[in-house]
Design brief:
Layout lengths: L1 H14 L2 H22 L12
Helix pairs in contact: 1-2
Length: about 50
């Protein structure tokens, strides 16, 4: 999800499309939250690891 967020940010910045920029930020933040929860050992959505 983090990689997808970065790709959306880049495409949104290059193409000057604000909605892609916003979606990229949202996906990036959600990906970072999942990584932090997974690293702390908490089960997220019934899974211990997200790959």
């Amino acid at each position: 999800m983090i990689i997808l967020g970065i790709i959306l940010l880049v495409i949104g910045f290059v193409a000057k499309i604000a909605i892609l920029w916003t979606l990229g930020i949202i996906v990036l933040v959600v990906g970072a939250i999942l990584v932090l929860l997974g690293a702390s050992g908490r089960a997220v959505g019934g899974r211990k690891h997200w790959y």
